[in-house]
Amino acid sequence: MHTYTNFLTMLSTEFQKYLIEHENFGARIPLNAMIIFQIEGEDDFNRWHQETSLRNREVEQPLVYVHVNKLRAQSLLKEVTLERIAA
């Protein structure tokens, strides 16, 4: 499950970026909507995310399925540095 939560965090972040670039797409999502990601080829994740989300859905909360057909194979980051801090 821990792997799924990390994957969901990444998906949520990338979806926010997608919405920034595609404003008209985001305008179609109702306020306070429960968003459930469905990723092509990730049946176990899809089942987990749907079951988890529906258990936490508020009464009459709008429900939106976001079907992702492709994920990028590489990072969007171009240059990265790391600074190690002593413990």
Q: Explain this structure to me?
A:
With 87 residues, the protein is α+β, with helices and mostly antiparallel strands. It has one domain (2-68). It is built from 3 helices and 2 strands. It has helices at 2-21, 23-27, 43-56; strands at residues 34-39, 63-68. The protein has a two-stranded parallel ribbon. 3% of the residues are buried. The model has no long low-confidence stretch (mean pLDDT 86).
Assembly type of the chains comes to single chain
Structural class: alpha+beta
Strand content: 5-15%
- Element-level helix/strand string: HHEHE
The number of distinct β-strands equals 2
* Mean pLDDT over the full residue set: 86
Spans of at least 5 consecutive residues whose pLDDT stays below 50 are none
**How far is the N terminus from the C terminus?**
29 Å
Largest beta-sheet characterization: 2 strands, parallel
Provide the spatial order of strands within the biggest beta sheet. 1-2
- The geometry reads as globular
Provide the domain count.
1
- How many helices? The count is 3
Q: Provide the gyration radius in Å.
A: 16 Å
The residue fraction in helices comes out at 40-55%
Brief account:
With 87 residues, this protein is of the alpha+beta class. The chain has 3 helices and 2 strands; from the N terminus they run H-H-E-H-E.
Which key phrases capture this entry?
two-stranded parallel sheet; 87 residues; alpha+beta; single chain
